[in-house]
Amino acid sequence: MKKILYVDVPFIGISDGGANRSKFIWNTLINHYEVDWLELQREGIAAATGLPSGMNDHFTLHTETDSRFYKPIMIYRFRSEAKQKFIEIIKTNKYDIIFLRFSSPAALGKLAEPYCPALVFDVDMILSRLSQLSWQQSRVFKNRYYLLEGLKQRWFERKFFRKKYLFLFTNYLEKEMVQKKIGQENAENFQVLPNVMNPQKVCVNTKEDRVLFFGTLTSSANANALQFISEDIYPLICEELKKRDLYLDIAGKGWHEHFSSYFYGKQRLRYVGEVADIQQELSDSLFIFLPLRVASGTRTRILEVANQYRAVLTTSIGMEGLELREQEIVIENSAKELAREFINLLDNPLRRLSLGQKLHFKCRELYLDSNVSRSLKEMLDKKAWLK
Asked: Which of 2, 7, 34, 105 could bond 38 through an S-S bridge, CB–CB 3.0 to 4.6 Å?
């Protein structure tokens, strides 16, 4: 049986797209391999409520935000003591594979190369693309952070993706973007591991007086979507919401005081905060509205919605990486077209029902967790990417 070291931040008891993907990967690994967990600890990382089950051994390693001006802030910095501890762990345990979640702990890959024949990075998202899209939304001086970070991230990625690692992407578009820049020399090292649909019970809806947007607002992608809703879309739909006595609710943790301006004077736009059961909240909504304009990394929200047979109105970026068609999901990009489809869905309950049903069954067909888990095992067992 192969022995794997899984490197990740805490994920037990945390409910967001990133943690859900970590749980899926973890459960796949422990079902087929002997797995140790290396827990990365850093200030600002959410604390878990416990340890994952099924692990062979557990180690901790301290990391920190890299505040040096020439380094990307999303790439972790490891001090000498932490580097030495990491080397001792992998030298002592002799792993067949080291599986690192995210590109943030990239420095550990270089340290591990002499001691492990195979390294896997679950990329999650191309950092420079997130920064580039955020900068393009507002090319002003106060938004220069994204411009500068994007430059540093591109420099990092040019070197990182040339490594002889196995890189797993959540969608084909970002995989092809990287391969186009790097070339086909290491084509076997670039693979897609889509996000998964974890089957959930269908909740009994208790009310249907709203449309729902949900997502953690500390994400720049979700914060940008909230601004887009408030400033560009809400003025086009507010009268329809008022006429029908409906609300557009924003659910998710991460409130910041400057968000208050997005809700001021908008009686039909509500912030409901963090919710106890997102599946129940989805069931209690007429449909789900996700007008994202910035690449958002792990895209699991539509797969969560599919469990409750609810229709989704989103953008090209919002559904990126999912092989869905117009029969299963509504996609528009401009505020005007999004508002038009928003009102159309309000007017057509049968269309909402049809879209929700087709989305559910298509997502089960393509993204059921058991099927994707099988694909992950096949990729890890394949020899072609081992150099």
From this structure: 7
Closest to 137 measured CA to CA, from 330, 335, 332, 341: 335
Q: What is the pLDDT of residues 76-115, one digit of tens each?
A: 999 999 999 999 999 999 999 999 999 999 999 999 999 9
User: For 11-24, b where at least 16 C-beta lie within 10 A, e where not — what string?
Assistant: beebbbbbbbbbbb
Structural domain boundaries of the chain? 3-124+161-195+369-381, 210-367
Q: Which segments in the chain show pLDDT lower than 50? A: none
CATH topology of domain 210-367: Rossmann fold (3.40.50)
How would you classify the pairing of strands 190-192 and 57-62?
unpaired
Instruction: Determine the Cα–Cα distance for residues 153 and 148; give it in Å rounded to an integer.
Output: 9
CATH level 2 (architecture), domain 3-124+161-195+369-381: 3-Layer(aba) Sandwich (3.40)
Contact indicator for 24, 196 with CB cutoff of 8 Å: yes
Cβ pair 135, 59 in contact under 8 A: no
